[in-house]
Write a structure and sequence with these properties.
elongated; 51% strand; 0% helix; mainly beta
Length: 294
């Protein structure tokens, strides 16, 4: 046990923290390393280019800054709080990362068993959720991106102006605000998305229980189930797409604008509108197998 303050770790240097050990304001430079084992705590560490910080099981890192090409590895059972991943820095999460900010081309990778809570992704930062990884309550804006890979899960993401969420896995309860976008790839699933005015959801995979509260959903070969279209909202159904059990309220609309599109189940027009707008007048094949209720 003990406390080390204002340490500088240069190339080849290693700092190890064990039970009861605490370090404050350490700087880890190129090829330097800091290891935080069970019961150890590192506060306000700066990881510079090609420096590394390893947060092992039972270890804790608080308020770390990871700069260009620096790396923070949060192992299974490790905890990182308040990390800033900046200018091409990298955070790998197999344990738990709380309140991380990823910006300026920084990257957060959430791997198997990893959990990231309350992450802010902005200004070309990227959060990548790998197989078995979970991200909760992420906020994405200003050219930031959240990528949900196959078998990855994102819960309660907020996508603001110029932010983007790309889904190959599963995304639950996202909110897409004005200028933000959600892309549901083939094989991807988006559940309970709220798309506000001037937000966009593009569906190549499956979208369930989406609410379009002034926003737009475009089906581009995808499937949408139980969509609610409120005032100002639009559901656009393109070729090879299927919309099941859509409800359209006053001021909302469905646009069927390509050949080979389907409305199935029960389409309810509660003051809303449906428009058939084929690309050409010949060879059109709209399949409306739903019950249209007014």
């Amino acid at each position: 046990s003990g406390v080390a303050n204002d340490t500088i770790i240069n190339s080849g240097g290693i700092q190890r923290l064990y039970t009861g050990g605490t370090t404050n304001d350490t700087i880890v430079n190129e090829n330097g390393q800091q290891f935080i084992a069970a019961g150890g705590e590192a506060n306000s560490t700066i990881i510079n280019e090609y420096g590394q910080q390893f947060v092992e099981e039972g270890g804790t890192a608080n308020d770390t800054v990871v700069n260009n090409y620096g790396q923070q590895f949060v192992g299974d059972g490790g905890i990182a709080n308040g990390t800033l991943v900046d200018y091409g820095g990298f955070q790998d999460v197999e344990g738990k990362a709380n309140s991380t900010t990823v910006r300026n081309g920084g990257n957060q990778h959430i791997g198997d068993s990893g959990i990231a809570n309350d992450t802010t992704v902005t200004n070309y930062g990227n959060q990548y959720i790998g197989k078995g990884g979970i991200a909760n309550d992420t906020t994405v804006s200003d050219y930031g991106e959240q990528t949900v890979s196959i078998h990855g899960t994102a819960n309660d993401t907020i996508v603001n102006s110029r932010g983007h969420q790309s889904i190959d896995g599963i995304a639950n309860d996202a909110i897409i605000n004005a200028g933000g976008s959600q892309n549901v790839a083939a094989g991807g699933i988006a559940n309970n998305t709220l798309v506000n005015a001037d937000g966009l959801q593009r569906v190549f995979g499956t979208a369930n229980d989406t609410i379009l509260d002034g926003g737009t959903q475009t089906l581009e070969g995808g499937i949408a189930n139980n969509t609610i279209v409120n005032d100002g909202g639009r559901q656009i159904v393109d070729a090879g797409s299927t919309a099941n059990d859509t409800t359209v309220y006053t001021g909302g609309a469905i646009f069927i604008r390509e050949n080979g599109t389907q409305l199935t189940g029960t389409t309810t027009l509660d003051g809303g509108s449906i428009y058939l707008t084929p690309v050409s007048n010949s060879g059109s094949s709209f399949f409306i197998t739903s019950d249209i209720e007014n």
